[in-house]
Amino acid sequence: MDIEKIRSQIPVLDHTAYMNTGWSGPSPRQVAQAMKDRIDLELEQGSTTAGVYETGKEIQAQAREAAARVFNASVDEVLVTRNTTEGINIVLSGLDWNQGDEIVTCNLEHGSVVVPSQYLGQRYGVVVKVVDLDPHDPRETILAKIEAAFTPKTRMVFISHVEYSTGLRMPAEEIRQLTKNRGILFMLDGAQSGGHIALDMASSGFDFYSIPGQKWLLGYEGTGALFIRKDHLERIHPAHTGGRGVVSPMDVHNFQPVPDTMEKFLGGSSSVPLQAAFLEAVKFVEESGIKNIEERNLDLADSAKAKLSEIPGVSVISPSERRDSSGLVSFSVEGQTPVSVVSKLWEDHHIVVRQVNYPAAVRVSLHFFNTEQEVELLAGGVRELV
Ligand SMILES: Cc1ncc(COP(=O)(O)O)c(C=O)c1O
After folding, report:
1. 37-286 CATH fold
2. Per-residue model confidence (pLDDT) at position 76
3. Which residue, 52, 212, 277, 302, could crosslink 35 as a Cys pair with Cβ 3.0–4.6 Å?
């Protein structure tokens, strides 16, 4: 991995220590260029003009193939979406729910897991069971707590693969083993894992997985992707649909829904320029290899945790075991609010990080373009604050 070359392609890094990829990643020049080129083409020639329209379709097909590669899934199990949350809602609002069905999730979750689940509670009487986890719980404890929450009414386990506030990497493959023989569905929010850790839908057996384009893949807001295992396509009804959801869009009164493919969720149009950026972003991370990125991010995170934990008054909240970790590192500083630490790091050192809740902390995102020198800058900046 040629880090200097990678950094030279990401202009934001010329003047900031950007450690906020978990919110939104800094895009490389070529990703922005792909979008600009498409906007210019449509500007000058018109998006529906013969030739232009077809190249747009081709970009969308390639974006879908790129998403399938990120998931290691077959193209017909993958849809390009607008964000992680949209993918989650396609699945949750498309399933038939019964009063008393149970969803198991945990206390460390993001709103995009909690809120759609709670809405199912409000609408259908689904019971949301929140398992209380500590980010330092050993893997066996996490599995035992999740398993203890199961009842004959458990319909789904819905968690993030990498927890947004602590970087805890959930033992997803093992959870899958717990759900598999009980007929419990397993939905993963991959907002913090797509482009960050190597995914393998083909071997993992996960049922549903939703990722964004704008975070670890370094694309733009307004893109994401959803995986639905083929055997489940039939049971997910399209909650949003439209002219593209029928076999003959020119004869919609002859209502014939498209067969049970991912296309049934495509009610209307979507942005070709954004998908051009998504495609280029996937190619950019693929050049380094997501498995290599995963390892590099873990090395940077190990180093950050070691340096931060040496500072008096600093508590590292993220897990310490490498297998439970990711490039997200959270910490707190005694006597200071996360918000004030975030502002000081920006004002004094141009370090971009953020504060999070559940638990409250300063969160640092370390991605492959970050360097050991930046980790030292961060630790030095925090040391100055205490
Ligand atoms: C775990 C998690 N889920 C969902 C989201 C929302 O992602 P999106 O904006 O792609 O829907 C985020 C990030 O903001 C997140 O960290």
Report:
1. Aspartate Aminotransferase; domain 2 (3.40.640)
2. 96
3. 277
The mean pLDDT value for 223-242 works out to 94
Closest atom, ligand 1, to C-alpha of 86? 11
Ligand 1 proximity of 85 Cβ (cutoff 6 Å): yes
Query: What is the rounded average pLDDT for all residues in the chain?
Result: 96
Choosing from 90, 91, 189 the residue with most ligand 1 atoms within 8 A of its CB, the one to mutate for a pocket test is 189
pLDDT reading at 305 higher than 90:
yes
How far, in Å, is the centroid of ligand 1 from the Cα of 89?
12
Ligand 1 center–CA 251 separation, angstroms: 38
- Of 219-223, 241-245, 381-385, the one with minimum mean pLDDT is 241-245
Lowest-pLDDT range of 42-56, 244-258, 280-294: 244-258
Write phi, then psi, for 283 (nearest 5 degrees). -60, -35
Q: Is 358 a residue whose pLDDT tops 90?
A: no
Instruction: Please report which helix (H) or strand (E) contains residue 305, including its range.
Output: helix 290-309
The CB of 160 under 6 Å from ligand 1? The reply is yes
191 close to ligand 1 (CB < 6 Angstrom): yes
Q: Is the CB of 192 under 6 A from ligand 1?
A: yes
Confidence of residue 73 (pLDDT cuts 50, 70, 90): very high
- Cis check for the bond before 11: say yes or no (omega within 30 of 0): no
290-385 CATH pick, 3.90.1150.10, 3.40.50.1980, 3.40.50.300, 3.30.930.10: 3.90.1150.10
CA distance 200 to 190: 12
Question: Residue ranges of the domains in the chain?
Answer: 37-286, 290-385
How many CB atoms sit inside 10 A of residue 379's CB? Answer: 19
20, 23, 82, 85: which to mutate for ligand 1, most atoms within 8 A of CB? 85
Q: Is the CB of 212 under 6 A from ligand 1?
A: yes
pLDDT band at 93 (very low <50, low <70, confident <90, very high): very high
CA distance 349 to 16: 8
Give the length of the chain.
Answer: 386
Strands ordered across the beta sheet of 224-228: 78-81, 224-228, 208-212, 185-189, 154-160, 102-106, 127-131
Substitution candidate for ligand 1 out of 21, 89, 110 with most atoms within 8 A of CB: 110
Place of tokens 């639905």: 228
